[in-house]
Amino acid sequence: MRPGWPLLVAAMLGLGTLAQAQPQPARALAPDQLRSGLAFAGPDVQRLQADGFANPGMLWLSRGEALWAQGAGPRKQSCRDCHGRQAESMRGVAAQYPRLAPGAPQLINLEDQIRVCRSQQQQADDWAFESDELLAMTLYVTEASRGQPLHMSPDPRLAVHLQAGAALYQRRQGQLNLSCSQCHDQQQGWRLYSDRLSQGQPNGYPVYRLEWQKLGSLERRLRSCYAGIRAEPPPWGDLHMRQLALYLTWRGTGLPIEVPAVRK
Amino acid sequence: MQLASASGACLALGGPSRALAQQIGFDQQRTVADMLQRLVGGRPVREQGVSLTAPALADNGTLVPVSVQVISPMSEDDHVSHIYLLSSRNPVMQVAAFVLGPWSGRAEISTRVRLAGSQQLLALARLSGGEFWFAAAEVIVTESACVDAS
Amino acid sequence: MSQGLARLQWPVVIQAGDVVKVRLLVQHPMHTGYQQDMQGRLIARNVLVWLACELGGQEVFRVEPSSGIAANPYFEFCVRARASAEMVVRWQDDLGVMGEWRQRMEVAERKTPKP
User: Fold this and answer.
1) In CATH, which of 3.30.300.30, 2.60.40.10, 2.40.170.20, 2.40.110.10 is domain C6-105?
2) Prediction pTM value
3) Which of A39, A191, A238, C27 could form a disulfide with A35 if both were Cys (CB 3.0 to 4.6 A apart)?
4) Complex ipTM over 0.85
């Protein structure tokens, strides 16, 4: 590795890979081994996702588009009033989450940010976690990042959260005493009854999950995993779920964002 | 085996009451005759002219794509008036009833159904002349391996 | 007055006399009455009881679904196009809530011979 300006500049900018702070977690899956959940899904699910009309997630996307233009709060402000056209202003935005909230050192996901806009900017009534409005808006904002690759921001302050997420991912939990890694790193591609175990990638969220028969968030999916291993799911809004989401985003670097994704 | 499949069906539906679970026994699926009887009565019914398309192995029991096509000129004098989708195992036997007519142009419908476990699906077409045609298809529905119910 | 959320699709180019395949997607949870919520309480059954499509004022499709139709019901059906007209989809569920969706179907005069 050449010494000199590149290293010095990189160190000064605090780029993740060259930061002196903490080393990044070990990668169980190499970049060329990464596969979207779509690759593990059956033909009907794949066809459903590819169907631009009949994909059930499209109902939420339509709703999100309508909500974007809808005034709310005492000043009847809409998202469009501040942000203009979604395709331009929201391009690449979803791909930046989870990230640290501007001003506060708090790790937030896209849903959190939308709720903040809603309560602080629009001064409108809150959209609860997993409400159809929040899901629709999250999906609509994410649509502007369709096809963009997952990546973690090179913000050095995220390193401690990344490590926390990685530790959570490796920890055995619940009555079944399983860690995420055991199924989704070590046994991905194997069959559990007739289901193929996916890698647990976060590139298709919010997702239309057939099990839920509606759209749902990544946080809901992670809490479902906790229920699946018979562990107590953390409360909604918990930091650990955002740290885990951050780790998953880092782990899935390069996978294209799918909107609206359909999964079992 | 019987009990496992019945409880398997329970999981697929998200946990119905025990009484209902006992109703959906593995060996207690409705026969073709059972399914046809209520709608057809004593009228002529033939296994012809109907094409029922469903996956042999469903990805998931909550959403199974199904298509039905009936060979018919769909004229005023000769057309399909109704298409019924019937289930051998769901708690509700008649999944859907479609009303068509000469204005339809073609007797073709598609939809997405829920299947409470592996079973036989029936598509029953009622023709304007009063006769019935049908077709049947077997669909295997497997359980979700990781049951999180959330 | 539209109420509820649905999506309707048909080919962009339609000539009078064509048999057109209509695709319809309606937002509705279609609660079976067998599912439980996170507290273990049974979610009351609420499914579509009927759905009908009118084209230019004439009913061209009707379905009576049950809990056996998947959530967010999807239907495909055919209709012979005659002239440009508005398609109106109406539906009602177990709770009596009604929905409506309207979309205009543009039909051109026939240029090519009828198939």
Assistant:
1) 2.60.40.10
2) 0.88
3) A39
4) yes
